Structure formats: C-alpha cells, structure tokens
C-alpha cells in the first residue's frame, strides 16, 4: 500500500476536525481529513445538534398549532401529525448541511478519506474501509469526538432501549417514554416526544436537572417542563433496564419498577479515543479516556494534536470549532487565543435556556462579590406580541468593577439573545456598557438592556 504524504492529517470530520482542516487549507497546508462516515459533519450534523433542533422546531410548531394558534385568531381545524414527513424533513436538513461540508472541504482542496483511521506510528495513520489507504504527516490532529455513555445494566437493543441517535428516529410516537438523565440532551429529546404525544418520565439521579446551568433557572425550567407534561423523578438512580416482550422494564435503586414502551439513555458522553491506535502513536489518555493537551492543543507527543469532545471540557460543537481554528493558527505561529470563560451554552427546549460566564453558585463558591440585575419577559413589549411572556434575563456583574461576569436567560429565543452577552463579555464590557447601548424597540434584546440597568437598580420597565 502506498503512503500518501500531507502536511496535516485530521482524524475525524466533525465540527472540530472539518473546521481545523478548512482553516489549515486556507493557511496553505496540504491537508487530509479522515472520517468513517460518508457524510462529514460528525455527531453534530448527523445525529446531534442539527437533527435534534429540526425535530424540536417541528414538534414545537405542531404543539403551537394545537394550543396557541387560536390565541392569535387562527382557526386551522384538526391538526394531524405526519411523523414520517417530519422525520424525512429532518433527514433532508441533515443531508443538505452534511453535503455542504463535503463541498466546503472540496472547495478548500482538503483530501478526504472515507474509512476508519488508526495510528500505526505517531505520524502515520492507516485507513480501513472501502478504499484502504495509508497517510503520513508531520502534524496530525485527533478530533474523534465522543459517543453516548453506556452501562452493562442498561440493556440497549437500539430499538426500544437506546441512546439519542435512536430517539431521533422513533418510527412511531411511544406511548410511554422513560428518559434516563435530566441533562440537555434528555430534556430536548424528552420535550420533542412529549409535544408529539408521549407520556415522558425523566429519571434523574441528582436532586436537580441541568447541572452546570444556574440553579435558579434550572428550577424555573423544571417547573415549566412539569407544567408542559414531563414527569420528573428526582434522586432516582436507575439500577437496570431491559426489554421484556414488548415492554421496557426499568428498576430503580429504591426498588421501584417502571414500565415504558421506549427508554432513552441520556447520561452523558465518553471520548471515542479507544481503538484509534493511541499506543502506536505513544499518546496517553486520562482515566476517562480524554486526551490531555497543552495551550497549543499538542498532546504529550510532538506533532500530535487533539481537540473537540475528545479532550473534554464543554462538549459542544462551537467549542470544538473554535479549538479547530485556534489549533491550526497556532501551528503556523499565529498568537490565536480561545477564551474558555466565554463559551455560551444553550438548551433548546421551550422556553430556551442560555448562559454565558459564571453562575451565581460559582461566584459564591469563588468568594467573588457581585451585583445582580433581573428583567422579566413579562415587562418586554415584544414578548407580549409574541405571546411569550414567561422568562427572565439575569445579569451578574462584579460588585467593584461592574464587569459582566455572567448572563443567564430563560425564555423564548434565549439562544439568540445570549450572543450579545457573549460578545460584550469578550470585549470586557461592564453592565453599564450594555446599559448605555441603544437597543431596538420592540425586541427581546431590550430585556438584556433592562437587566443591565437593573444591576445598579435603574431598571425602567420592571416593577
Ligand atoms: P464529533 O462531532 O463527534 O466528530 C468526530 C467524528 O470523527 C465523527 O464523525 C466520528 O464518526 C469520526 N471518527 C471517530 N473515530 C474515528 C476514526 N477512528 N476514524 C475515522 N473517523 C472517526 N452541541 C452544541 O454545541 N449544540 C447543540 O445543540 C448540540 N446538540 C446535541 C444534541 C445531541 C443529541 C448530541 C448527541 C450532541 C449534541 N451536541 C450539541 C454536541 C456536539 O454534537 C458535539 O459537541 C460535537 O459534535 C463535537 O465535535 P467533535 O468534532 O469534537 O466530534
């Protein structure tokens, strides 16, 4: 087998890998990108961010059509669900976007290899698949991502009991769906099926949902989701789950038995760093399988870099993409930098939950004195026109310097609103800076303005 020579080989074509490959090609490198799937874009585009948001959008429209169109004076008669069409729309969105990534790689003259890559030494990767190949480069990037966590006692058959990939493609609406794990993936997919008619029960081992999200917002979210029909069983540790006949039987540590038609296991993700020949490359992982890197994203082996989900931290597509850019720019000597304190996180339920920076708990724990400004959606004109008056914006600013330390939003379109907060924080803005910016009226962004004014007790539209 001939060995193809490149300047840089990227193993994994997800958001981290394909972005790194494109940026490296822009910088003049001869780049190869390997992925085991024909459709590039990784977990995010194929079975993550994009298909889940497509279903969230469709199921939200279905729910709105049934429940709130009439409030707007719109009579549309009986609303019927056509699940196969909803699913094929989702697939079309995925096809369009993954096709776009393949075209972008081509346009940037990145050589793509389709197959499973495995290091045979620190600078050479062998690719198994339809067209076996061997590639060699002075620099390699490991961007193999992550996969759902699994447990021997949860007997996944991939049909009735399985992970998020399964729950993105149920062939019919399950009557009863049990979601194990109250994180964002479980809540997003639980919301989809709840809106489409399933009775959804969320089993969470902790006493709160959405760890990592500001606890005040997480409590509001739980109350709201409960009103929407989701049932939560907190502090509930699942001991086992198995398929028995047509049923799934879930047993909890407290001795409760729960029956369901389907079970979604959503308890987190693990790095896909096994079976990629790390031994041959001489690269070690930590106990959980994550790769450790320095400020240049270089592993313990010179020339071998890693980024994205497989190095841990926030397992988010935009974090992986940012690392892809910064990693290759630093390879070429540019002084690029990624500010890990300002990574937005969004839960795409309804209402959306969005956060950037520190939570109140984190500030208290770090002993940082802060001021707080709060603005309810109910005081926002646009929220009323949208019929979306539930929600709030919270701005946390340093008590002495007024610098914005965190912004937390629950409410309609929170995911779009958080961008302004992130940009402001990146520029080191104070709450006063946001308060002095003229915000268009009527927009939801006025709530961020109002919360920033509220930091100094100057809110104008809040009782
Ligand atoms: P991945 O996207 O996992 O890409 C790695 C790629 O490498 C994969 O295609 C994999 O098949 C391939 N690969 C692995 N090993 C090999 C090998 N040996 N040879 C060849 N190819 C290999 N994040 C967000 O930011 N926003 C969201 O809304 C969001 N929603 C999500 C919803 C769900 C249901 C899930 C599961 C995830 C979601 N995520 C979301 C997380 C997001 O998908 C990941 O953080 C992101 O995809 C990580 O990018 P990555 O490039 O590190 O890895």
Report the CATH C-level class of the largest domain: Alpha Beta
**CATH fold naming of the largest domain:** FAD/NAD(P)-binding domain
Proportion of residues in helical segments: 25-40%
Number of distinct beta strands = 22
Account of the protein in words:
With 463 residues, this protein is of the alpha/beta class. The protein has three domains: 3-148 and 270-332, FAD/NAD(P)-binding domain; 161-267, 3-Layer(bba) Sandwich (FAD/NAD(P)-binding domain); 344-455, Enolase-like, domain 1 (2-Layer Sandwich). Helices cover 33% and strands 25% of the residues. The chain is built from 14 helices and 22 strands. α1 packs parallel to α9 (317-331) and α3 runs antiparallel to α4 (83-107). The model has no long low-confidence stretch (mean pLDDT 97). The chain binds flavin-adenine dinucleotide (FAD). Flavin-adenine dinucleotide (FAD) binds next to α1, β2, α2, α3 and β4. Flavin-adenine dinucleotide binds at residues 11-17, 34-37, 42-44, 48-49, 52, 116-117, 143-146, 164, 185, 272, 276, 308-309, 315-318, 320, 348.
Describe, in short, the structure shown:
With 463 residues, this protein is α/β, with parallel strands linked by helices. The protein is 33% helix and 25% strand. The longest helix has 25 residues, at 83-107.
């Amino acid at each position: 087998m001939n060995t193809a020579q490149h300047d840089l080989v990227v193993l994994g074509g997800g958001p981290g890998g394909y972005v790194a490959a494109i940026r490296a090609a822009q910088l003049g490198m001869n780049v190869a990108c390997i992925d085991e799937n024909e459709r590039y874009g990784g977990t995010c585009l194929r079975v993550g961010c994009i298909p889940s948001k497509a279903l969230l959008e469709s199921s939200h429209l279905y729910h709105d059509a049934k429940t709130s169109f009439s409030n707007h004076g719109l009579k549309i008669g009986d609303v019927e669900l056509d699940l196969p069409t909803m699913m094929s729309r989702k697939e079309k969105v995925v096809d369009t976007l993954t096709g776009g990534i393949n075209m972008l790689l081509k346009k940037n003259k990145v050589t793509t290899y389709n197959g499973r890559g495995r290091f045979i030494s620190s600078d050479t990767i062998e690719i198994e698949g339809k067209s076996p190949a061997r590639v060699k480069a002075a620099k390699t990037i490991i961007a193999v991502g992550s996969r759902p966590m699994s447990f021997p006692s949860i007997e996944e058959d991939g049909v009735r009991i399985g992970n998020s990939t399964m729950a993105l493609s149920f062939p019919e609406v399950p009557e009863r769906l049990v979601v194990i794990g109250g994180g964002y993936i479980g809540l997003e997919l639980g919301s989809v099926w709840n809106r489409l008619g399933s009775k959804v029960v969320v089993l969470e081992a902790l006493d709160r949902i959405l760890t990592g999200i500001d606890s005040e917002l997480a409590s509001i979210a739980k109350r709201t989701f409960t009103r929407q029909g989701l049932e939560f069983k907190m502090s509930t540790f699942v001991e086992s789950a198995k398929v028995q006949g047509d049923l799934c039987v879930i047993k909890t540590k407290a001795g409760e038995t729960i029956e369901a038609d389907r079970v979604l296991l959503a308890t987190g993700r693990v790095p896909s760093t096994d079976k990629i020949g790390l031994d041959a490359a001489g690269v070690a992982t930590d106990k959980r399988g994550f790769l450790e890197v320095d400020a240049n994203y270089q592993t313990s082996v010179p020339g071998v870099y890693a980024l994205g989900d497989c190095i841990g931290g926030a397992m988010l597509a935009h974090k992986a993409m940012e690392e892809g850019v910064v990693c290759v720019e630093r390879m070429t000597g540019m002084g690029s930098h990624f500010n890990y304190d300002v990574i937005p996180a969004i839960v795409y339920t309804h209402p959306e939950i969005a956060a950037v920076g520190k939570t109140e708990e984190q500030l208290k724990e770090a002993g940082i004195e802060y001021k707080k400004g709060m603005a309810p959606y109910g005081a926002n004109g646009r929220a009323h026109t949208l019929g979306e008056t539930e929600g709030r914006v919270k701005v946390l600013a340093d008590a002495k310097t007024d610098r914005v330390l965190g912004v937390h939003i629950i409410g309609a379109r929170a995911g779009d609103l958080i961008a302004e907060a992130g940009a402001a924080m990146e520029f080191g803005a104070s709450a006063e800076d946001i308060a002095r910016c003229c915000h268009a009226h009527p927009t939801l962004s006025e709530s961020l303005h109002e919360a920033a004014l509220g930091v100094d007790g100057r809110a104008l539209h809040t009782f």
